Structures are given as structure tokens and as C-alpha cells.
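Bug #77: duplicate submission created two jobs. Keeping one. Sequence:
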Amino acid sequence: MQILIDSTLSLSQVTMADAPLLVKHLNHEKIFENTLMIPSPYTMNDAGWFITFVEERKQRYGRLNDWAIRDENGQLIGGVGFQVEHGIHSHKDAIGYWLAAPYWGKGISTKVVKVVTNIGFQEFGLRRIEAPIFPHNIASARVLEKNGFESEGILKNYHLKKNQPIDVKMYAKIN
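Kept job's structure:
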């Protein structure tokens, strides 16, 4: 199933055919620095694991929770999804996203987060969507703020990055 964002962007399930582009795009140093869970270096094994993980969650929950962001040619240029850490019947979830470096600064993430947030509220029945980001990730903060997310403060030692505790700035949007 494909979800149209606009005439040049869509969302769909990631497939094994996307593995080389996952590896290519996710080995960018800034993507590693600005995301919570993407390993570095990012290998074909990591891509295969992730693609399998997405399909297994789809089968387990009966719905897709993670999408590939695709350009007008259907090429993978990013990813977005929900963590589902509280289960699919929870009133809340956390959103995460990344975009390949050549596409930064074009408003793509803002459009994608808007559509996926609406899916969370309208189709998944969420009342709260959280987005923990690193305080240094100003671009992601702007994406969230443009979509009506509000900063709720800094969570100390919230995540481990390179085996070191790191703070996150928690954003949330309430439906």
C-alpha cells in the first residue's frame, strides 16, 4: 500500500530491494549523530534485520508502523515510523524519522511528519505522539514545531549513544 504525500513523495513498506539505499544513506555521519537507534557503520546485515523487523511487526500488529519515504521515482530517501513500545492499544506512541542528506532543507520531513502524525491520530487512535530528539538536532526540532509539537523539556540520560548516557529534548503533540 502506498500513501501519497504530494506529487513527488510517497510512503510505503521498505523491502529487500531497498537494502543498498538504506546502507548508502544511513552511513552518513550526521544521520548517526542525530538518531536514537541507527547503528554506525550501517551494514547490509543491519538493513536485512530492519526490513525483516518491519515485516514481522506488520504481521504481529496487523498494520504497518514503519514506512520508507520515497521520491517521485519510488527510490528510498528516508524512513519514518512509530516505536509501538506501549503496544498497539496504547493511547500514546513515539515517532522517529530520518532523511537522506541530499534531501535536507527541502521541507520533506515536515510534510512526512504531518501525514504520519495524522495517521497516528486518525487511524491508530493515538491521543499523544512523542518525539524524543537530541538537543543539538535543531533541524528536527523545527520539523516538529512546524507540525504543532511542543517541547516538554529535557530528559536527562534518556538514551545511550556510543555507550554513553545522553539527554533528549522531548516533544509531544496531543490530539
